[in-house]
């Protein structure tokens, strides 16, 4: 039994002679009695002898005490009362306890452990990762489970074999006091030694000085110590400090958290990192408050992990954590403290104005305007020693820069604005905050030139003048000023006495050395009381602001000999107005269709000085490096940018506006709003806008203006800001003023006398002064090519009261630009001009069809009957009576005519894509005919239709009838007959001839024919055809036809059914004959069904199939010529009988005499085929076939199969199919 006990308790072997009886404790149950152990059992429970636990009555006053050879020692590592639970057995082996299956009683187990090592009770169960587990992972392990064991006095009683043993047993006992050193952040391993009780307290001189003190604070060993006010101060061998790293260099108050240990920087790992840890770092480094932390990717092996600070430690190094030289980091914490935050005003005209930038995490970032509160502006200005904000209602705009954004939002617990900075995401289309403080100063030059004049200083709406005192104003100060103003080098400097009351002027003075970049970088000095002079300077450069395309385009600043762009970030609407006025480009600014793309610029921004109206006096901020931005872009314009499109018309036609380099037309009903006093016609000197247009607008595929809306205060001189609305694929509007006029060529549009039409009527143009130049300009306006010839024509017509003379510079955009105020002389003559081009109008057929101009179709849009009449008259086809559209897209002409255009070539036209072209019909295209020769029903060819004709009784007079007979090349005869008109009247035309109509074609109308009579002509020579006698309806024929159809249908059904049955029977026969071979009957059947030419033969053969399906006998010769195509196919594929048993007619019906046929290794001899079918009867007579059909439902073995009773057993007998299908037995007899 002793062996079993020592072995199961892992205590070695029994000590010989050490077993003895000891007094039994009262009230303690004896569980096992009468044991008979052999010594080999795994536990006492396995020993035989005891009836059951606690059943055997034990009344002795003593029990056995056994002593084993093992010596068990339990301790904690690395500290006496804190660390991992460790055991050793007789100094022979050791290991660690692991806490498998620790449950609610794990605190009791830990309490037992602390007391067993003499460290009092349990203080806490710390994180397992806070201790060094390198030895644990490679050592022996023992599980601890005290569940179900009462009154445990030693942890070893709960030890057993481990299960998984992932985590060690770690405890902190009451006997352990945490230590830390309170000293300088430059070395946290030197300073006053403190221990943690309820709070951190200094360790006094009643402690044993050992290396353990430095080891417990992870600082090596004791180097030296001293006492200050009886408080122990230690200096350990390690030198440790917490640092923040920005990349590979130490940074101030931001960066990845590192620890420098003995000169080596190693990261702190981020597992379990908290905001409290980050606060600890900022506090330790005297960096203010934590504003942001995050975990980032690791940068190498760490020195601390699982850090857990409470906030009252002296250093991050002394927080609870796992320490080690080569810890594996999954991530590294990155901390930003408020001490790293700085503010600046960047990219402005001075240090006290610009875009607010924040140094955050080592990077200058912009501040999001959407979350900015203006109350913070004063704080920023005061931080930068710039006073307060100016409080302007319209603050300046600055270069937006690039990079990330932060937001600033403080609460009442954040008095320092640097603690309120927060990173921002999703900042697309965000604008940066800009601030102008009251101490912001700018320099300007007041003079006639941009780079010369009196030197002035503007600050917060106050103007100062630079003193011209000899004590401060010198060449160094003047040279600095020229460079600051981007005006090149100094040419000369001087001073002049101030004009006006000197008491109203405030002076400033600066002393420069020549090395400064700005006058404000020089030393500001006090002025002598006697100063009365203003500094004057003249620089070599010149500054000018313009637009790249004259009156529109990108803003260009000419400075230092170059013309460069400026960013749109700082550009304002007021600057655009000023620039348009300075360049005399109109009284309005138009909004751009599309801003230009980003590009490299030289100037970041432009800033006006005070209320100056001259952009040359502005301050320019130049880029110091390559910058890209959207350049400033301005479109100037006004009333002068709107005009009539140059054409043969004057004061009439399409209105267009000059916009971004293009003259864009106005669409129908487009509005122009330039104020209540604006009248377009008056501005064009064309009279009043009182006449509605007489011409329709033409379609336009490109961009067109739908509205020009110019805002302002309503006065005539107020500067306007205009917006233009655009559309595509519109109809252009046509405007006509009261003083409209148009010039035309009277014959066909491209030749004829030159005439001017206006409200005064038609007037001819005098030939005086006309040369080839004027002729070319007119022909081009008329879309007639180049000038060809001219001649003078005498006449007394009314003449236009002005002449025409074009300048030789070629700038005339229309013939009206050549009009002079000189009237024609009294010897005037009419002008006849012919152009090289033509406006030839035609129809696709004679007097009808598609309308074409110079072989190109005319579009149907806006077409009306007047246009059709012009075409028919021009082609001598009379009037038009119909027009319609021909569908289909095609290139063609859109046409718009005025009332005075008598031919289509004179009308206005543009080329485009027709959705449909126009087709017309002229009256000369109408013709008449009759249903019979010289008589019968009258028919009219009207447009595209032949229609019957009706007429009132009164209209059918002899003259009309005679005229109709003559049109049919027949002589007049009798009166017409009258017949009733059918009820349907759609395809009828009515003859209605007033007394004054001489052409019967003009009598054809579309009036209804409901109460009129059909016109029937009976001209001379007309013989009326006798009508055929009426016939009875063929009722019997219909009945007979239906009967025949039914019979045919029945025959077809019977034929198909018989065909299917026959195929089925044949397939079954073959299956029974060849049960071991797979035969594709379905495909065979489909092949035969797909051969319609053979089906008729198959049908004919089927009549004889019952009589002669197989022929028996050797050497039998068949004289039958019947064709059994389907049987032949089966025979060829699967021969059922040898050659001598196969009828020749089944083998090959269409072989030539004496021919042989070989298939599948079998050769067939074919006898001579008979020439006719006369011997069919003989075959039927000589051959007798008996067929027995049996339904074989049960499979029978081949050996036991016998023919039916009375039948001959030979090779022709077919065995039953094993599948139980129908079997066919055939027996041939002769």
TrEMBL record:
Residues 1188-1202 have a biased composition (Polar residues). SMART domains: SR. This is SRCR domain-containing protein. Disulfide bonds join 37-47, 309-319, 410-420, 512-522, 897-907. Residues 1-69, 72-174, 242-338, 343-438, 442-540, 545-637, 642-748, 741-848, 858-923 form the SRCR domain. One of its GO terms (cellular component) is plasma membrane. SUPFAM superfamilies: SRCR-like. PROSITE patterns: SRCR_2.
